[in-house]
Write a structure and sequence with these properties.
This protein has 420 residues and is an alpha+beta fold. The protein has 2 domains: 258 residues, FAD/NAD(P)-binding domain, CATH 3.50.50; 151 residues, no CATH class. It is built from 12 helices and 18 strands.
Amino acid sequence: MDSIKEKYDVVVIGGGPSGMMAAGRAAELGARVMLLEKNETLGKKLLITGKGRCNITQAEFDDREMVKKFGARGKFLFSSLAAFGPEEVIRFFEDRKVETKIERGGRVFPVSDKAYDVLQVMKRYLEKNKVEVRYGAEIQGFELGEASSEKRIKSVRLKGENVKGDKFILCTGGKSYPATGSTGDGYRWAEDCGHTIANLAPALVPIKIKEAWIKEAQGLSLKNIEIKLFQNGKKQDSRFGEMLFTHFGLSGPIVLDISKKIGELMEKDEVQISLDLKPALSHEQLDERIKRDFKENINKDFINYLPELLPQKMVTAILHLSGIPERNKINFVTKEQRKFLVNLLKDLRLTVEGTTGYNQAIVTSGGVNLREVDSKTMRSRLVGNLFFAGEILDLDGPTGGYNLQVCWSTGYAAGTHAAK
């Protein structure tokens, strides 16, 4: 096998957001950098984030609040956020002529609403700092060696050649959206180096629902509703916010955020979802409201009243589930039927069939065990010249720019310290 004669100071594997940031930062500090990308272009997944608008980061400027969003493992991020947090990310892009805006929920987007503009900034960052990019790189793994008692990487094995380096940064992402190149190869290479991989699962992923009526509501977005998870009659978790009905089930911010918990619960037993369509009202308040409505519409057919209470796309489903004949006059709806309707609206039960898997997952839960990585430098504790950044690490947060912020922060940290 031939080796590329030149030896690089830093070799970065993976041209996603963390890889581009790591490569650009290392080169900015004077390192000679090679970036290896399996696709024919950089940032393929970046272009589809935020539905093509690119939710660059989250406007949460208190690091303590930011790390809470990542659960027990969030404290790993303190050092990298302190060095390159949301404020620094926003400044990074605005200094390079991409103006940003903050939308509902603290989501930060480019004013242009174009992920393409974000990608162009990163490409120019690489070009300005003379990063060499190898496209279509068929990476097969690392060639390992020993330096005294320390395990080290000598080169990256490509098809037909090796790329030598002094330091190596693994930024291959997870297994989500495999069509973009995220096929989980990096986990195998990390394991070859002795690292352990925490349980992998799709996260921030849509949910498949058993009930057939879901298809009738396809495309309907509901704001300010509550979703609860139940297993064996016990409430397990809940979220409040916006949700979307799809042809196969549920999606939208609160569903994506709770999907990881659903996946964990389904390994044990069946999971039921409860939708509270009127969370601002108690059972009693909703009952009083419907009683008032009924008094004002005593001669109206029940089916013609429901659109006053519900979005049109849910009328047929609720009508059938309520058991009240559609041509029943409101005046003939019994107290028991009315109470049953109230319960339906406050506790609409759905049966979870599963998630849509990695193909539609925004991120991967699990990854390289954080105990094996230095949180300040992103350097491996097992291999002297290996660094990690981005989704390959065992970190995943909610929707809203949190996960992309991890890519920028850890990429910046890895690039900074690999260049030393």
